[in-house]
Amino acid sequence: MTVPALQQGDTVGIVCLARKVSLEDIQEGINLLEAWGLSVVLGQSIGAEDGYFGGPDELRKTDFQQMLDNPQIKAIFSARGGYGTTRILDQLDFSGLQQNPKWIIGFSDVTALLCHLHTLGLPSVHGTMPLLMGKPETAEADETLRRLLFQEPLSYAVPANPHNIMGEGTGQLVGGNLILLDTISGTASDVDYSGKILFLEDVGEYYYNVDRVLVHLRRLGKLQQLAGLVVGQFSDMNDTQVPFGRDVPQIILEHCGGYGYPICFDFPVGHVDRNFAMAVGREATLRVGVDGVSLAYTNSYF
């Protein structure tokens, strides 16, 4: 399904799908979007509070639904992640979005929404969010998102990593936050990974829990038929009092290394400043070689 490229003068929306956020928190992101030539509309959930959440579930759901159904809004950004997207996901109506596709952008907790859209044949963007945008340290990530949304040429090259498994694979990009991918297993948002390039990231997890989740995904048969695996940033990892004894590359290779598809490590995607935008649902080719890694989309548009 084709999503029109953003144009200068287009209107985009920002809503809070999960953890609460203030206008001040996202002002730098708003400024950047306006510098791109976009008009920004804020949802009522920006600045709203219901304990941890950006307003009650009903407010966040209605806020997002109104933007989904508004044909004048050409893209919708989740202001931030945290937790809360899955609480409203089953109450949303995506029929209007299927008739008039638009960009939906976010990562972390928003992984569940991006996967749900993929099951409906709708592309989306795993990328940085207004809370994090517009800062000098995130300029590279911001630019990858701009190029993707405006459909300018975009491909990635990263250095070789000693843990990489060489090879080449082509398939649709799917993935995101590892724990969220496990959380949606067996739900209407669950994704079939077969023949696809899976990308993974996470933050603040315990090594044993990464292992536990990968064991679960492997037992579900989800890791065996990938076209390729892109391992992003597993930042701020924790260990137990009795050390687990394996780091993230060792854990991933133990569960995925024997299936014959290419695997690359240390890709710039995740809870880090260099969080490169990934077009979920778009076909790409992953090449992992001795001299480095490339990830390139196989066509110009969705």
TrEMBL record:
GO biological process, one term: proteolysis
GO MF, one annotated term: carboxypeptidase activity
Keywords: Carboxypeptidase, Hydrolase, Protease, Serine protease
Lineage: Bacteria, Pseudomonadati, Bacteroidota, Cytophagia, Cytophagales
Pfam families: Peptidase_S66 (PF02016), Peptidase_S66C (PF17676)
Name of this chain's protein: LD-carboxypeptidase
Record's keyword annotation contains Amino-acid biosynthesis: no
Entry similarity comment: Belongs to the peptidase S66 family.
LD-carboxypeptidase N-terminal domain ranges (all copies): 12-127
UniProt-annotated catalytic positions: S108, E201, H271
The keyword Hydrolase is assigned to this record: yes
Domain LD-carboxypeptidase C-terminal stretches: 170-286
Cross-referenced InterPro entries: Carboxypeptidase_A_C_sf, Class_I_gatase-like, LdcA_N, Peptidase_S66_N, Peptidase_S66C, S66_fam
PANTHER family: MURAMOYLTETRAPEPTIDE CARBOXYPEPTIDASE, MUREIN TETRAPEPTIDE CARBOXYPEPTIDASE
Gene3D superfamilies in the cross-refs: Class I glutamine amidotransferase-like (3.40.50.10740), LD-carboxypeptidase A C-terminal domain-like (3.50.30.60)
